[in-house]
Design goal:
Strand order of the largest sheet: 2-1-3-4
CATH topology of the largest domain: Rossmann fold
Number of domains: 2
Strand content: 15-25%
Shape: elongated
Distance between the termini: 19 Å
Radius of gyration: 18 Å
Number of strands: 7
Length: 234
């Protein structure tokens, strides 16, 4: 069987670490027959390269599933590097977003919008325009879901910053936090929010694990099953 290697961005926030581990536990509960491990692209261990190296010593193959909401540097550089390092054995799945499932979770977090005119999607941000495009798609999906205009404000990287978006957006606002877990960026969102209500990050929610498993299945289907006899150790 092809292992699932989940990879997340590290955080110094214990609550954020706990949430990421809960996603992995949900993966294991939903697919108990599937070998699942967790690595990180920043701050925490095991670092993704060392984890993949360890997994590939025993497993016929692995799919690296980014527990990331958009495709940016970590997907196109860090995750892609592991697939190149083990050609034919390690494959990269797509990021979690954009996807209607994420819009559904965001809408559920927002709850009753009878007193809300517009929504601001608070996202981490990126210097990669492909990641910003992913966020724009998510904003469009959420706008359809809640029947309200949705604007994007970033707390880092390129794109319009959250304080400026909040300042220029009229009416009664709600902030939809487009972050996976508590951490530094979530603290920034609350710091900039002022009087506006703010939703919690997306995790933990079992739909995230279901989505990650779908990304895994999509990657496996794209490449076909990996058999140990087809592989050469590196």
């Amino acid at each position: 069987m092809t292992d699932l290697v989940a990879v997340a961005h590290g955080t110094a926030d214990p609550a954020g670490i706990a949430v990421v581990h809960e996603i992995v536990r949900q993966l294991a509960r939903q697919r108990p027959d599937l070998p699942v491990s967790l690595g990180f692209v920043d701050l925490l261990t095991p670092a993704l390269p060392s984890l993949v190296r360890r997994v590939t010593t025993d497993a016929a193959g692995a799919v690296v599933v980014p527990l990331l909401l958009s495709s940016g540097y970590h997907v196109y550089v860090d995750v892609a590097a592991e697939a190149r390092r083990y050609p034919g054995r390690v494959h990269a799945a797509a990021a979690l977003g954009p996807d209607p499932v994420l819009a559904d979770i965001l809408a559920d977090r927002l709850g009753d919008l009878s007193r809300v005119d517009q929504v601001v999607l608070a996202a981490a941000g990126s210097s990669d325009p492909r990641a910003l495009a992913d966020c724009e798609t998510t904003a469009a999906l959420l706008a359809q879901r809640v029947d309200r205009p949705v604007h994007i404000g970033y707390v880092s990287g390129a794109g319009d910053r959250l304080p400026a978006v909040l300042a220029r957006t009229p009416g009664r606002l709600a902030i939809a936090t487009y972050l996976l877990a508590p951490g530094f960026f979530n603290t920034l969102v609350h710091r900039h929010a002022g009087p506006h209500p703010v939703t919690p990050p997306l995790a933990p929610d079992p739909r995230l694990a279901t989505l990650a498993l779908r990304r895994y299945d999509e990657a496996v289907a794209a490449v076909g099953p990996v058999r140990r006899g087809d592989c050469v150790r590196v």
